[in-house]
Automatic annotation (TrEMBL):
Residues 195-216 are annotated as: Disordered. This is Chaperone protein DnaJ. The chain crosses the membrane at residues 169-189. Keywords: Membrane, Transmembrane, Transmembrane helix. Pfam families: DnaJ (PF00226). It comes from the Eukaryota. CDD domains: DnaJ. Residues 11-75 form the J domain.
Length: 216
C-alpha cells in the first residue's frame, strides 16, 4: 500500500522515467525522449495519447524549480502521512491483539484478591464467635466447668455450697428417723393387738378406738 502511494506521489517523475533526485538537465532530456516516443503522430499503439499527456503534465510541473519544490514538498508530506497512518493502524491492531489477554489476566487477579478478602473475613468472624457452632452438650459442660472453677476460686461460695449440702443431709436423716419411728410404732401396735385378743379392752384401747384406731 505504501509502495503504491509512493508511486502515485512520484507519478510525474515516473512519467518521465527518471528518479526524484534527477537534475533539471536530466529532466529535459527525459522529456524530449518520452515525448518523441509517445507522440500520437509517431506511436500508433493504443493509449499513446494518454501517455503523451502524462509526459506533458510532468514536464510542465517539473520544468520550473519553484513548482518542482512545491510538488516535492507535497509528495513528501503525503508520503509521510501515509506512513504515519499505516504505523498508527499497525499499532492499533497490535494493541487490540494484546489488550484482551491483559484484561483477562487483570480480571483473574481481581477475582483472586476478592476471594482472599472474603476468606480472611470469614476466618476473623469464626475467631470472634467460636462457640456459635459448638455442640450444646459441650457448651453445658463448659458452663459447668466455669461454675466449678468459680466455686474453687471463691472460698465464701464454697462455704455456701458446703452449708447447703449439710442441710440436705440433715433433712434426709430426719426422713430416715421418721420412717424408723413409724416401723417401731407399727410393730408395737401389732404386738399389742395380739395380746389384746386374749384380754378385755383397756382404757387405752377404748381411747384409741374413740379416735378411729382399732388395735384389736
Amino acid at each position: 500500500m505504501l509502495r503504491r502511494s509512493a508511486q502515485r506521489c512520484c507519478d510525474l517523475y515516473a512519467a518521465l522515467g527518471v528518479r526524484p533526485n534527477a537534475s533539471q538537465g536530466e529532466l529535459r532530456e527525459a522529456y524530449l525522449r518520452m515525448a518523441k516516443q509517445h507522440h500520437p503522430d509517431v506511436a500508433n499503439s493504443h493509449g499513446s495519447g494518454a501517455h503523451f499527456q502524462r509526459v506533458q503534465r510532468a514536464w510542465e510541473t517539473l520544468r520550473c524549480p519553484q513548482q518542482r519544490l512545491a510538488y516535492d514538498s507535497t509528495t513528501r508530506f503525503e508520503t509521510n502521512s501515509q506512513i504515519l497512518r499505516h504505523r498508527a493502524a499497525k499499532q492499533a491492531a497490535y494493541a487490540a491483539q494484546n489488550t484482551a489477554p491483559k484484561m483477562h489476566w487483570y480480571e483473574d487477579l481481581r477475582q483472586a484478591a476478592q476471594q482472599e478478602r472474603m476468606r480472611q473475613e470469614m476466618n476473623r468472624k469464626e475467631k470472634i464467635f467460636p462457640d456459635a457452632y459448638d455442640d450444646p452438650v459441650r457448651m453445658q459442660a463448659q458452663q459447668f466447668e466455669r461454675v466449678m472453677r468459680e466455686v474453687r476460686s471463691n472460698p465464701d461460695f464454697g462455704q455456701f455450697v458446703g452449708a447447703g449440702l449439710q442441710m440436705k443431709l440433715i433433712c434426709q436423716l430426719g426422713f430416715i428417723l421418721a420412717a424408723m419411728l413409724n416401723l417401731l410404732l407399727w410393730a408395737w401396735a401389732k404386738q399389742q393387738r395380739s395380746q389384746s385378743s386374749t384380754r378385755p379392752p383397756s382404757s387405752l384401747d377404748r381411747a384409741l378406738k374413740s379416735v378411729g384406731i382399732d388395735l384389736r
